Amino acid sequence: MDRSSRQSDDVFAGEARGEVSPRAARALWAGSAGLVLAVLGTSVLVAGAEHGWRLLVAVALVVAQVCALRWQARAPVAVLAVNAATGLAVWALLPAVTLTGALLAAQVSLCVLSAIRPRRVSVGALAAMCLPAPLAFGAGGTAGLAVYLLTVVLAWTAGQWRRAQQERTRAEMRRAVVEERARIAREVHDVVAHTLSVVVIQAGAADDVFTQRPEQARQALRAIETGARSALGELRLLLRAFGPGEEEEGAGEQREPGPSLARLDELADTVRATGMTVHVHREGAFDGLPAAVDLAAYRIVQEALTNTLRHAVGADEVSVRVAVEGECVKVTVVDNGRTPQSRSAAAGAGRGLVGMKERARLVGGSLRAGPLSPGGFEVAARLPVEDVS
User: Fold this and answer.
1) For residue range 361-370, what is the model confidence (pLDDT) as tens digits?
2) What is the DSSP letter of 72?
């Protein structure tokens, strides 16, 4: 397995373990800390206004809870234990806060734990959070008990809902990757079949003129060598992806080789027909590019233009730049549309972007996509030539 394949698999493995990205962890901390400070912090200040040293200790405990929330995505069980203990201490110091309010940070931690840890762990945490229920009954009667149990169960349920949502998103991403690999495999299969057909024809021509016109025979043999090297490179790519399914509809039909950068103007014309202004810039020599890289670059441009038409709010202009620089092909597609939240960099898990990244990865390249600070959205790919040739 190649290095890029291992990295992709590690990403999915990390998601399956419930790991949270640093950016998401910071956002989670900011939101939960703000909630605890706004609700519990205000309650402590009001309830402890006339309690002197008790107020100071309770405020220190609230600050400790907020600090502990910083690690709730990394160690949710430990953070839950800390917040539960400090919450009980706050309630003991200032009973007017109510047990439900004092354990707000613990409820937030329970929600996060329920979302990112296996159900057997979260169910145990839920049971532990129900242990102080008799205290809630003693302090507030039946109503106090009902409110406490309801908030705890709701916190756990919210985490379970979020976990189910994340699992659906991950499953959709995996399906998108599998479908894109299968599509790539079919296209590479067609390219290799076309190349080998040319090799067979050249071999027959060389055999026919081998004695009478040896120079022409040598030219045919050189064409065979070039075609065979290209086919080997395509086969290496094919082995990285899933092979085309034998049971797939139309698997036995004859298919034409896939499009290439030579048809970039045709692709741009189809987008211009919608009223969008498309600028196409080419740099370098495109002749002799490996078919897999040529096809991957074309498909990335195609998908990026499709995303512009579908998701770029108010976009009326898009620029496409394809450059052959040294041993790589660089593809850049930039539009001038507004970028809603659904199209932000964090939303890069859409099927279109997943497919583009998978195409770049399978030829040994890389792709990044995200909004630009002045406005608009950029897709930039780097596809090395030597990796497949």
Assistant:
1) 888 899 999 8
2) T
